[in-house]
UniProtKB/TrEMBL annotation:
It comes from Neobacillus novalis. This is Thiolase family protein. GO terms for molecular function: acyltransferase activity, transferring groups other than amino-acyl groups. It holds the Pfam family Thiolase_C_1. It comes from the Bacteria. InterPro entries: Thiolase, Thiolase-like, Thiolase_C_2, Thiolase_N. Residues 285-398 form the Thiolase C-terminal domain. Residues 4-212 form the Thiolase N-terminal domain. Transmembrane segments: none annotated.
Length: 412
């Protein structure tokens, strides 16, 4: 089977773009990725397009990728539309990787583009609930509330019902955070340390939606969302796009000027029916990814983890094996995950600060890891970075993500 390499990346600055569309943002990053790879659009043999809400907001269903690719004159390649909640973009990359690995294609592109901002803010926030089991939505919310009532010493103050004035996923994360606080003694200040660190990292990233630094105290004193999360601990609503071009080793040998990064592992899975103390999807997939790559967590030089809230990063740093269970908060507070630390996490600023346009986020993570491994990250460069990991989760069923992809990349 062919080894697979990333040869081109593209990404716009995540933010709020009232005059851009899913299509125009996708076109921009496709052109960037082609230029970065040093190839022409005619070289591409397949396209994989990730988007979640274009149909909901603008009635463009079913053939989203074909609309984008044909619009820029790419009408002879097979196009696969990918919808996997927040893990859609990384799933698109996994499918492109699979096609190359199987020998079906020599070069393919994965694209993610999402426009979440809407004049009707309530519509934007309510859209997130479609990333859950909608037929059993009330049952799911009830499950979360029942879990939350059992956590002693970390009870939230009286607040509005889940999903009221916020994404329902903030309530999911808040419940999980309170569970962690109750079981391990994790503190709100440790969550604030993670968010403060990510705001520092994003201040060095020209592609980040937020580029302002925030102290731990400023994070703690920010507007409350749902206990114990404050606004700056949570990913913002925003728009953006990213693209990644992958190729086989045989195609790579034809290129004269490129900066390839090798994909050592690409794993994809769905969440299982478990209780809060069972083995997490991230743990299961991380073990599979490390086995495929022939590496362990101690070999990872930097990681982009799915931090729709600060707790997401805390939890995934444990699930990926970077620190023991229950120590994610103190691990971050120690400075280990900050630039210059033993394992810098979310040097892009993460979803909290770089931004989280759902259908593009997974490829934005890959953009950051590739940029780091190429040594082109500027002031946020991880010195000597050779191996990077990206973990991207999506949706929620039961007490864990519905879908997840993990990629491990190596500098060439």
């Amino acid at each position: 089977m062919e080894d697979v390499y990333i040869i081109g990346i593209g990404m716009n600055k995540f933010g709020k773009y009232p005059f851009e569309t899913v299509r125009t943002m996708a076109e921009e990053v496709i052109q960037q990725a082609l230029k970065d790879a040093g190839i022409n659009k005619g070289d591409l043999e397949a396209g994989f397009f990730s988007n979640t809400f274009w149909g909901m907001f603008n009635a463009q269903h079913s053939i989203r990728g074909q609309v984008v690719f044909r619009g820029i004159g790419m009408d002879r390649i097979p196009v696969t539309n990918v919808e996997n909640a927040c893990a859609g973009a990384s799933t698109a990359l996994h499918l492109a990787y699979t096609g190359i690995r199987a020998g079906m294609y020599d070069v393919a592109i994965a694209v993610g583009s999402e426009k979440l901002t809407n004049p009707d803010k309530a519509k934007s926030l309510s859209a997130y609930s479609s990333c859950m089991d909608v037929e059993n939505f009330e049952k799911q919310v009830g499950l979360l509330l029942d879990y939350g009532r059992n956590f002693e010493g970390s009870q939230p103050p009286e607040e509005s019902a889940p999903g009221t004035g916020r994404s329902v996923f903030m309530d999911v994360y808040a419940m999980m955070t309170r569970w962690h606080m109750n079981k391990y003694g994790t503190t709100q200040r440790q969550l604030a340390a993670i968010a403060s660190k990510n705001h520092f990292h994003s201040s060095l990233n020209p592609h980040a939606q937020y580029q302002n630094r925030m102290s731990i105290e400023e994070v703690l004193n920010d507007n409350p969302v749902t206990f114990p999360l404050t606004r700056s601990m949570c990913a913002p609503v925003g728009d953006g796009a990213a693209a990644v071009i992958v190729c086989s080793e045989s195609f790579l040998k034809k290129l004269r000027k490129t900066r390839p990064v090798k994909i050592l592992a690409s794993v994809h899975g769905q969440g299982s029916d478990r209780d809060l103390d069972g083995e997490d999807i991230g743990e299961r997939l991380a073990k599979a990814a490390y086995e495929k790559a022939g590496l362990g967590p101690q070999d990872i030089d930097l990681a982009e983890l799915h931090d729709a809230t600060a707790y997401g990063e805390l939890h995934q740093s444990e699930a990926m094996g970077f620190c023991p269970h229950g120590e994610g908060g103190s691990f971050a507070e120690s400075g280990a995950t900050t630039l210059g630390g033993s394992i810098p996490i979310n040097t892009s600023g993460g979803l909290e600060s770089r931004g989280h346009p759902i259908g593009a986020s997974g490829l934005a993570q890959i953009y950051e890891v590739v940029t780091q491994l190429r040594g082109e990250a500027g002031d946020r460069q991880v010195i000597g970075a050779r191996i990077g990991l990206a973990e991207n989760g999506g949706g929620s069923i039961g007490v864990e993500e519905a879908a997840m992809c993990i990629h491990i990349l190596e500098k060439v």
